[in-house]
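Quick one, probably user error.
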Protein backbone atom coordinates (compact mmCIF):
# COMPACT_ATOMS: atom_id res chain seq x y z
CA UNK A 1 0.00 0.00 0.00
CA UNK A 2 1.28 3.45 -0.92
CA UNK A 3 -0.04 6.51 0.95
CA UNK A 4 0.36 10.12 -0.15
CA UNK A 5 -0.40 13.41 1.58
CA UNK A 6 -0.50 15.49 -1.60
CA UNK A 7 -2.40 15.05 -4.84
CA UNK A 8 0.68 15.87 -6.91
CA UNK A 9 2.63 13.07 -5.25
CA UNK A 10 0.05 10.39 -6.03
CA UNK A 11 -0.15 11.58 -9.63
CA UNK A 12 3.62 11.40 -10.01
CA UNK A 13 3.63 7.91 -8.53
CA UNK A 14 0.85 6.65 -10.79
CA UNK A 15 2.45 8.25 -13.85
CA UNK A 16 5.76 6.51 -13.11
CA UNK A 17 4.13 3.13 -12.49
CA UNK A 18 1.55 3.24 -15.29
CA UNK A 19 3.00 5.06 -18.34
CA UNK A 20 -0.42 5.28 -19.96
CA UNK A 21 -1.58 7.60 -17.18
CA UNK A 22 1.45 9.83 -17.77
CA UNK A 23 0.58 10.00 -21.47
CA UNK A 24 -3.03 10.89 -20.71
CA UNK A 25 -2.13 13.66 -18.27
CA UNK A 26 0.38 15.08 -20.77
CA UNK A 27 -2.25 15.02 -23.53
CA UNK A 28 -5.02 16.52 -21.42
CA UNK A 29 -3.96 17.85 -17.98
CA UNK A 30 -7.60 18.21 -16.98
CA UNK A 31 -7.93 14.44 -16.55
CA UNK A 32 -5.61 14.52 -13.53
CA UNK A 33 -8.53 15.08 -11.16
CA UNK A 34 -10.36 12.03 -12.51
CA UNK A 35 -7.19 9.94 -12.15
CA UNK A 36 -6.51 10.96 -8.55
CA UNK A 37 -10.12 10.83 -7.32
CA UNK A 38 -10.52 7.02 -7.03
CA UNK A 39 -7.62 6.91 -4.56
CA UNK A 40 -8.71 9.77 -2.29
CA UNK A 41 -9.92 9.02 1.22
CA UNK A 42 -11.11 11.48 3.83
CA UNK A 43 -9.44 11.36 7.24
CA UNK A 44 -10.07 13.22 10.49
CA UNK A 45 -6.87 14.49 12.07
CA UNK A 46 -6.71 16.02 15.53
CA UNK A 47 -3.03 16.83 15.15
CA UNK A 48 -3.70 19.31 12.33
CA UNK A 49 -6.22 21.38 14.32
CA UNK A 50 -5.21 24.94 15.30
CA UNK A 51 -4.09 25.35 18.92
CA UNK A 52 -7.25 27.30 19.86
CA UNK A 53 -9.47 24.38 18.88
CA UNK A 54 -7.14 21.50 19.77
CA UNK A 55 -9.21 18.47 20.60
CA UNK A 56 -11.38 18.97 17.56
CA UNK A 57 -10.73 17.07 14.34
CA UNK A 58 -9.73 18.60 11.03
CA UNK A 59 -11.06 16.95 7.89
CA UNK A 60 -8.39 16.41 5.24
CA UNK A 61 -7.66 14.25 2.22
CA UNK A 62 -5.12 11.50 1.73
CA UNK A 63 -4.48 9.32 -1.32
CA UNK A 64 -4.00 5.57 -0.99
CA UNK A 65 -2.97 3.23 -3.81
CA UNK A 66 -3.32 -0.45 -2.96
CA UNK A 67 -1.08 -3.05 -4.59
CA UNK A 68 -4.14 -4.66 -6.21
CA UNK A 69 -5.16 -1.30 -7.70
CA UNK A 70 -1.74 -0.82 -9.22
CA UNK A 71 -1.60 -4.33 -10.68
CA UNK A 72 -5.07 -3.88 -12.14
CA UNK A 73 -4.29 -0.49 -13.68
CA UNK A 74 -1.22 -1.91 -15.42
CA UNK A 75 -3.15 -4.87 -16.82
CA UNK A 76 -6.26 -2.99 -17.91
CA UNK A 77 -4.04 -0.21 -19.24
CA UNK A 78 -2.49 -2.74 -21.62
CA UNK A 79 -5.94 -3.84 -22.78
CA UNK A 80 -7.23 -0.32 -23.27
CA UNK A 81 -4.10 0.72 -25.17
CA UNK A 82 -4.45 -2.37 -27.35
CA UNK A 83 -8.03 -1.44 -28.25
CA UNK A 84 -7.08 2.16 -28.97
CA UNK A 85 -4.03 1.16 -31.02
CA UNK A 86 -6.09 -1.24 -33.13
CA UNK A 87 -8.63 1.49 -33.89
CA UNK A 88 -11.64 -0.15 -32.30
CA UNK A 89 -12.00 1.98 -29.20
CA UNK A 90 -15.63 2.58 -28.20
CA UNK A 91 -17.23 5.58 -29.95
CA UNK A 92 -14.01 6.36 -31.83
CA UNK A 93 -14.91 8.35 -34.91
CA UNK A 94 -13.50 7.10 -38.19
CA UNK A 95 -11.71 10.42 -38.66
CA UNK A 96 -10.04 10.34 -35.22
CA UNK A 97 -6.46 9.13 -34.86
CA UNK A 98 -6.96 8.15 -31.22
CA UNK A 99 -9.60 8.34 -28.50
CA UNK A 100 -9.69 11.44 -26.32
CA UNK A 101 -7.83 11.21 -23.02
CA UNK A 102 -11.05 11.72 -21.08
CA UNK A 103 -12.67 8.73 -22.78
CA UNK A 104 -9.69 6.50 -22.01
CA UNK A 105 -9.66 7.58 -18.36
CA UNK A 106 -13.39 6.89 -18.16
CA UNK A 107 -12.97 3.30 -19.37
CA UNK A 108 -9.91 2.68 -17.18
CA UNK A 109 -11.55 3.71 -13.95
CA UNK A 110 -14.94 2.20 -14.73
CA UNK A 111 -13.05 -1.10 -15.02
CA UNK A 112 -11.09 -0.44 -11.83
CA UNK A 113 -14.37 0.18 -9.99
CA UNK A 114 -15.78 -3.08 -11.38
CA UNK A 115 -12.68 -5.00 -10.33
CA UNK A 116 -12.77 -3.54 -6.82
CA UNK A 117 -16.36 -4.71 -6.49
CA UNK A 118 -15.38 -8.13 -7.82
CA UNK A 119 -12.50 -8.45 -5.34
CA UNK A 120 -14.83 -7.71 -2.44
CA UNK A 121 -16.94 -10.66 -3.57
CA UNK A 122 -13.98 -12.99 -3.87
CA UNK A 123 -13.35 -12.86 -7.62
CA UNK A 124 -9.69 -13.27 -8.51
CA UNK A 125 -8.92 -12.20 -12.09
CA UNK A 126 -5.46 -12.78 -13.54
CA UNK A 127 -3.51 -10.07 -15.36
CA UNK A 128 -4.34 -11.78 -18.66
CA UNK A 129 -8.04 -11.81 -17.80
CA UNK A 130 -7.99 -8.14 -16.83
CA UNK A 131 -6.20 -7.17 -20.05
CA UNK A 132 -8.62 -9.09 -22.29
CA UNK A 133 -11.65 -7.78 -20.40
CA UNK A 134 -10.28 -4.24 -20.74
CA UNK A 135 -9.76 -4.63 -24.50
CA UNK A 136 -13.33 -5.85 -24.96
CA UNK A 137 -14.78 -3.13 -22.72
CA UNK A 138 -12.83 -0.45 -24.54
CA UNK A 139 -13.94 -1.80 -27.91
CA UNK A 140 -17.60 -1.59 -26.97
CA UNK A 141 -18.58 -4.10 -29.64
CA UNK A 142 -18.18 -7.84 -30.31
CA UNK A 143 -14.72 -9.02 -31.36
CA UNK A 144 -13.33 -12.36 -32.45
CA UNK A 145 -10.57 -13.81 -30.28
CA UNK A 146 -8.10 -13.47 -33.16
CA UNK A 147 -8.73 -9.72 -33.38
CA UNK A 148 -8.24 -9.33 -29.64
CA UNK A 149 -4.96 -11.23 -29.91
CA UNK A 150 -3.81 -9.03 -32.82
CA UNK A 151 -4.50 -5.90 -30.79
CA UNK A 152 -2.64 -7.20 -27.73
CA UNK A 153 0.34 -8.26 -29.85
CA UNK A 154 0.47 -4.83 -31.45
CA UNK A 155 0.53 -3.31 -27.98
CA UNK A 156 3.26 -5.68 -26.71
CA UNK A 157 5.06 -7.36 -29.64
CA UNK A 158 7.41 -9.29 -27.33
CA UNK A 159 4.56 -11.26 -25.72
CA UNK A 160 3.16 -14.61 -26.82
CA UNK A 161 -0.46 -13.59 -27.26
CA UNK A 162 -2.34 -15.59 -29.88
CA UNK A 163 -5.96 -16.57 -30.56
CA UNK A 164 -5.62 -19.78 -28.52
CA UNK A 165 -4.35 -17.95 -25.45
CA UNK A 166 -7.08 -15.33 -25.76
CA UNK A 167 -9.72 -18.06 -26.17
CA UNK A 168 -8.50 -19.73 -22.97
CA UNK A 169 -8.72 -16.42 -21.10
CA UNK A 170 -12.20 -15.71 -22.49
CA UNK A 171 -13.36 -19.14 -21.39
CA UNK A 172 -12.14 -18.41 -17.86
CA UNK A 173 -13.99 -15.09 -17.88
CA UNK A 174 -17.28 -16.87 -18.55
CA UNK A 175 -17.12 -18.64 -15.18
CA UNK A 176 -15.62 -16.46 -12.46
CA UNK A 177 -16.48 -17.93 -9.06
CA UNK A 178 -17.35 -15.68 -6.10
CA UNK A 179 -17.03 -16.45 -2.39
CA UNK A 180 -20.79 -16.99 -2.05
CA UNK A 181 -20.50 -19.92 -4.47
CA UNK A 182 -22.12 -18.12 -7.40
CA UNK A 183 -20.47 -18.00 -10.82
CA UNK A 184 -20.47 -14.86 -12.95
CA UNK A 185 -19.73 -14.41 -16.64
CA UNK A 186 -17.75 -11.25 -17.34
CA UNK A 187 -17.88 -11.89 -21.11
CA UNK A 188 -20.35 -13.49 -23.50
CA UNK A 189 -20.06 -15.09 -26.94
CA UNK A 190 -22.61 -14.52 -29.69
CA UNK A 191 -23.82 -16.79 -32.48
CA UNK A 192 -20.99 -15.59 -34.74
CA UNK A 193 -18.42 -16.61 -32.11
CA UNK A 194 -17.48 -13.02 -31.33
CA UNK A 195 -17.07 -11.85 -27.75
CA UNK A 196 -18.38 -8.89 -25.76
CA UNK A 197 -17.92 -7.63 -22.23
CA UNK A 198 -21.02 -8.10 -20.09
CA UNK A 199 -22.74 -4.92 -18.89
CA UNK A 200 -21.19 -4.20 -15.45
CA UNK A 201 -24.63 -3.41 -14.09
CA UNK A 202 -25.62 -7.05 -14.62
CA UNK A 203 -22.56 -8.51 -12.92
CA UNK A 204 -22.27 -7.62 -9.24
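Nope, works fine. Designed sequence:
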Amino acid sequence: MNTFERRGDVLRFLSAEVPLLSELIHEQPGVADAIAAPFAIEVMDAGRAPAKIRGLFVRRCRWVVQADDLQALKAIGDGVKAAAGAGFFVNLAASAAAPAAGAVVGVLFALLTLLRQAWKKGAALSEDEMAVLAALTAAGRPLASARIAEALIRQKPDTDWDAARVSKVLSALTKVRLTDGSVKAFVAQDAEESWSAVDPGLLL
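The chain has eight helices and seven strands.
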